[in-house]
Amino acid sequence: MDNVSPFCRSLIDPDRPEWYVVHRDGFLYYEPEYAPRNPDTFDLDTSWIVHYGQFFDDFGSLTLLNDETRYVVAGSDDRLRLAEFQNTEEFKNTASFHAIRYHIKRKSAFV
Fold first, then answer.
1. What local confidence, expressed as pLDDT, does residue 6 receive?
2. What are the contacts of 38-43 at 24+ separation with CB within 8 A?
3. By the 8 A CB rule, do 13 and 30 touch?
4. Residue 75: which pLDDT band, with cuts at 50, 70 and 90?
5. In the chain, what percentage of residues exceed pLDDT 70?
6. Distance CA 18, CA 39 (A)
7. CB-count exposure of residue 44 (10 Å: 0-12, 13-18, 19+)
């Protein structure tokens, strides 16, 4: 896993930096570091690999550190969930994101 460490990230709530994004039952949730539901797996459950330009230039995708076949996708119910890779345009669209800096939140991402 050493070769992926530069691309390994944890996602936090910018207003509550001790709250991390974790995966549970195929969906994503915030969970506090000081009271994790599964302390033994918390580090792995909050570790993501960022793949830059995998599907589209200037966009990234996220997989689990311990299972790079499962991607974060936007579900039709507007919830973020995990899904196995599918080689379709729809999958690539729902698995792609563009990160913006927190300080420009609510402004155009292309400022």
1. 74
2. none
3. yes
4. confident
5. 86
6. 14
7. middle
CB 22 within 8 A of CB 28: yes
Taken as a whole, the chain contains a residue count of: 111
**pLDDT tops 60 at residue 55:** yes
DSSP output for the chain: -GGGGGGEE--EETTEEEEEEEEETTEEEEEETTS-SSGGGHHHHT-EEEEETSSSTT-EEEEETTEEEEEEEE-TTS-EEEEE---SHHHHHHT-B----GGGTTS-TT-
Burial 6-31 (b: 16+ CB within 10 A, else e): eeebebeeeeeeebbbbbeeeebeeb
pTM, two decimal places: 0.79
Select from 9, 11, 30, 80 the least CA-distant residue to 71: 80
The CATH architecture to which 2-100 belongs is Trefoil (2.80)
